[in-house]
Predict the structure.
Amino acid sequence: MSKSKPFPLPPGTLIGGYRVVRRLAAGGFGVVYLAAGADQQMVAIKEYLPPSLVTREPGLLAPQIAPDKLSLYRLGLKSFFEEGRSLAQISHPSVVSVLNFFRENETVYLVTEFLEGASLQDFIVVARDLKNDKVFRESTIRSLFDEILRGLRIVHQHKMLHLDIKPANIFITDDNRSVLIDFGAAREVLSKEGNFIRPMYTPGFAAPEMYRRDTTMGPWTDIYAIGACMFACMHGFPPSEAPQRVTEDKAAQTLKRFRGIYSDDLVEIVQWCMALDPLERPQSVFALQKELNRAGARRYTQLTVGDKVKQQLGSMLESTKKNVLKSTDVGKKT
């Protein structure tokens, strides 16, 4: 079978009553499209189409799967479908909404709301270029993660883990919502090593246990990533990878330098979340929320997260965002 990437569906293709407008993105599990429903509502559709397992020639709808990869493909297909079923049960403004999921063309499609805005990563890049002592103000960080933790708590209550929380997967919409997106890593990632399954991870934001087979993952695993995201909002860059921190913990050294710039309370919360030992982290989102919002820790004006970010970055954000949108089309994601 050819190792070339499978071709995306062309604009105008009808799938499940939706018409494909264009491709938005592609990744390890497939392709994301912008599509229009029968009522012309714009949605995002994720197609299960892992390039490591399948190919698809131009003009075809169904993927071609090599016989020796068929079992792995079906296993991933089942996991993708079950993820859609689980996410569809969650209704929270800080979790991307699943509108539909269906089987067609020998694969599965996941329909989600189409969000307009920019990712937290885009805002971090703009903010750090201002070269201030603080990339984001403490009040902005606390408000942002207060919203995200509310959504993550619901996800955990549904017995799901995200497992790929990072600034690129936190979306700040034009209507001032902070939304967790791209639960792709919540699916079990297919390894080429037989039927062994392991989660995908993003260096810098992945907890140490995600690099090993012999440890249990849980809410504390996502909480490590939350801490790493807060670190990125303070520093402008992600912390070093977890395995590197075991021998030389540059992240801990950086956090020490933040004392006096950010409150001791916030620095200690980030250190707590990013403990290398899972047992030394908050064991639940509730425990983290309680500390982040404890009496006296925050006395800030109640602006929306979007207002805080935009107020902080001002006009420079708008011009930079326009350039980013033109070059990468990051302003429209699932």
In short: The CA atoms of residues 93 and 179 lie 7 Å apart.
